[in-house]
């Protein structure tokens, strides 16, 4: 990548007199002695039209005051230069504006690039001179400014850390809640399974004690396997269909005086076994006494299969949750890697499942043909978490959450939309400001979207913006397909 050189004329010392400096609003209240000091230590600098005066990220070595001409300030967002200000107002200042802060080991850099839009002239002070005069001439003001700057920095660091811990705690609590449900289900199913297996052993003993003919016992075992196989292939029924079938089976068993038929009928109904199957059992066994015992034995086998399916489903859910948590946190994986963005989106939805709830319909419109992108996956998951959580809260846990991915030129776009009331224009223009929040005190720090913005823009060279109207709010996160070029 070619770096544009800074080409400016040499600085000319002593060109401005104290009277000239007094015409600048920044210096108009200074004493004659102070103006004389500025005239002695400052110089004037000329830059031709289109010339680059300072470059964003370079060491902040000079303090500039515009004397004539026009300039623009730009900042880099990904691969683009975004103009943040244009001015031709005489006396405006820029450059090393924080040189007066005490040395805390942090390098002072230009926060934006400045370019001359016409032939331009500046009054220039070295950053060291500007910082020294500020500390010597205005000590009380400097103490206040330093306290304000350091206070904001420390506050942002503490609150940001607190927010991350709070988010981690909320996610951990949600994950424990999600894990508890399948774990409890597996525990209940295991306890019931132990009882059913014991009952099956007892029933088998009774069948053997009843001196059932070997051929009949073999037929009974074959019948049991056939019924279990039929139950495995039975179509899925609605709750109403299961209830109707349960009544029909209960009536059939009552007509034949099956012991505790009301207890065994729900098991057969849940397995999708109908009266046609029971009629076939009755015909093949040709013994009312054996039919009673056979139905209970087959019922125990059916319930055992159902309980084992419940355990398999519960443990599978636990495994899926653990896998999602691992994908979300990216443990044991490098910080920066090529990733499929959909993996992080899916794991985030799983981790936030307890917050999304049943009242929110989740629509995923993914373009699975999109290539992998270079990213810090754990940081992007923090972005998805902040935005999805905000969307769910905006909808008051009732509405539609739509997550869409698609290509836009050389960028991958993730769109997170909700059907909430929308974001008013006066709020929308401040939504990415640090500490700005519309949530009640104690419910938001105002850093979630600021952190998301910095992760997307500063860390990944992407862009993030929002469009909103009642019933349709969309956050658009654009991420480059390739590594950003190094300077």
TrEMBL record:
Its EC number(s): 2.7.13.3
Pfam families: cNMP_binding (PF00027), HATPase_c (PF02518)
InterPro entries per the UniProt record, alphabetical: cNMP-bd_CS, cNMP-bd_dom, cNMP-bd_dom_sf, HATPase_C_sf, HATPase_dom, His_kinase_dom, RmlC-like_jellyroll, Sig_transdc_His_kin-like_C
Reaction equation(s) it catalyzes: ATP + protein L-histidine = ADP + protein N-phospho-L-histidine
Nucleotide-binding among keywords: no
GO molecular function list: protein histidine kinase activity
Domain Histidine kinase: 276-483
UniProt keyword list: Kinase, Transferase, Two-component regulatory system
GO BP: phosphorelay signal transduction system
Protein name: histidine kinase
Source organism (scientific name): Actinoplanes derwentensis
């Amino acid at each position: 990548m070619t770096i544009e050189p800074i080409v400016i004329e040499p600085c000319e010392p002593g060109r401005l007199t104290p009277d000239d400096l007094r015409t600048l609003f920044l210096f108009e209240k200074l004493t004659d002695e102070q103006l004389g000091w500025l005239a002695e230590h400052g110089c004037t600098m000329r830059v031709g039209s289109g010339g680059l005066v300072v470059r964003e990220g370079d060491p902040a070595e000079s303090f500039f005051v515009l004397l004539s001409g026009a300039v623009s300030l730009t900042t880099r967002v990904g691969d683009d230069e975004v103009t943040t200000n244009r001015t031709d107002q005489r006396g405006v200042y820029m450059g090393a504006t924080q040189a007066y802060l005490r040395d805390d080991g942090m390098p002072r850099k230009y926060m934006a690039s400045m370019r001359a839009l016409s032939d331009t002239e500046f009054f220039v002070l070295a950053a060291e001179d500007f910082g020294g005069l500020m500390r010597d001439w205005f000590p009380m003001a400097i103490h206040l400014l330093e306290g304000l700057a350091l206070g904001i920095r420390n506050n942002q660091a503490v609150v940001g850390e607190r927010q991350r811990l709070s988010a981690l705690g909320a996610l951990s609590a949600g994950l424990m809640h999600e894990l508890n449900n399948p774990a409890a289900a597996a525990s209940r199913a295991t306890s019931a399974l132990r009882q059913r297996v014991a009952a099956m052993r007892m029933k088998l003993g009774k069948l053997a004690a009843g001196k059932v003919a070997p051929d009949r016992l073999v037929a009974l075992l074959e019948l049991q396997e056939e019924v279990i196989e039929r139950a495995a292939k039975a179509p899925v029924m609605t709750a109403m269909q299961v209830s109707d079938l349960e009544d029909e089976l209960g009536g059939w068993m009552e007509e034949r005086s099956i012991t505790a038929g009301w207890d065994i009928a729900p098991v057969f109904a849940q397995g999708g076994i109908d009266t046609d199957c029971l009629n076939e059992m009755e015909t093949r066994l040709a013994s009312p006494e054996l039919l009673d015992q056979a139905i209970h034995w087959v019922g125990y086998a059916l319930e055992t299969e159902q309980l084992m399916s419940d355990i398999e489903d519960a443990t599978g859910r636990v495994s899926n949750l653990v896998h999602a948590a691992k994908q979300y946190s990216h443990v044991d994986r490098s910080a920066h890697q090529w990733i499929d963005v959909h993996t992080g989106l899916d794991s985030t939805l799983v981790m936030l499942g307890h917050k999304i709830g049943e009242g929110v319909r989740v629509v995923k419109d993914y373009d699975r043909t999109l290539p992998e992108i270079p990213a810090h996956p754990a940081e992007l998951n923090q972005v998805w978490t902040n935005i999805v959580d905000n969307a769910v809260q905006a909808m008051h846990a009732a509405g539609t959450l739509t997550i869409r991915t698609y290509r836009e030129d050389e960028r991958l776009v993730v769109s997170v939309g909700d059907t909430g009331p929308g974001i008013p224009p006066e709020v929308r223009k401040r939504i990415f400001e640090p500490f700005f929040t519309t949530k009640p005190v104690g419910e938001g720090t105002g850093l979630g979207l600021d952190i998301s913005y910095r992760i997307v823009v500063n860390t990944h060279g992407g862009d993030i913006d929002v469009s909103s109207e009642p019933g349709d709010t969309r956050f658009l996160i654009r991420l480059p397909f390739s590594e950003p070029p190094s300077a």
